[in-house]
């Protein structure tokens, strides 16, 4: 049954102290000065290995590949930390957090979800936007239906799959349809989200689906990606934040900072996300 949806450096003046420093050196203070310099320099490398314990990162399923790579890199740089990924659908994740399920970091595929978590007091401080996730069309290998662009999402003669509307990818489907003045004609409003639509395309159950572009690679050679022009496309903001209920706050802040660093952004880019 079809469902229609519309949708410089600092300059330090030392001249007044020169005589004092020379006197101190003559009295054996040179060793102390060396120790002081070493102590002052230590903070640049200390801290990387000072994090310990377990860090639970709660995130949406489409972020799995990126976060697995981030987990590996972060643990290598912080041997005392064990990162545990808890992945699932956004509505479930928020319900779990509200129910008291322990976690330290939240990574969301869209600004709306992070906004909900923030408004409910779950987030400590401000979330960092670490990437953008654009949408794309996925079709079975060979594209027998001849899908060319977003207009196919409103073609009643095609088997169309989009995400359930309560999911971030579903909301983006409505946004894209509105932007392109398309009336979505969906055979599938998929509760399993973007990844499930890719699976249906790989088995030929649908002719075309609208998904997160980063999910398509999971379909391998059984699917093809049709790029949506930027002028017609929409994307979501991937955000990360430490949670107020975290029992390992220092590690939580460090992990979020890593995701927003050049190293983290490089991993996001390699996973197919657009970075700031």
Instruction: Please give the largest β-sheet.
Output: 9 strands, mixed
**Could you tell me the mean pLDDT?**
85
Spans with pLDDT under 50 lasting ≥5 residues?
1-48
Q: How much beta, percentage-wise?
A: 25-35%
Q: How many strands?
A: 11
Helices, strands, pairings?
Layout: E1 3-5, H1 18-41, E2 53-60, H2 64-77, E3 81-88, H3 90-98, E4 105-108, H4 111-119, E5 123-140, E6 160-163, H5 168-179, E7 184-186, E8 188-190, H6 193-202, E9 208-212, E10 223-226, E11 235-243, H7 249-259, H8 262-270
Parallel strand pairs: 2-3, 2-4, 6-8, 6-9
Antiparallel strand pairs: 1-7, 4-11, 5-9, 5-10, 5-11
Helix pairs in contact: 2-8
Your description of this structure?
With 276 residues, the protein is an alpha/beta fold. It has helices at residues 18-41, 64-77, 90-98, 111-119, 168-179, 193-202, 249-259, 262-270; strands at 3-5, 53-60, 81-88, 105-108, 123-140, 160-163, 184-186, 188-190, 208-212, 223-226, 235-243. Strands 2, 3, 4, 5, 6, 8, 9, 10 and 11 form a 9-stranded mixed β-sheet that branches. A two-stranded antiparallel sheet has the order 1-7. Helix 2 (64-77) packs antiparallel against helix 8. The protein starts with a strand and ends in a 6-residue tail after the last helix.
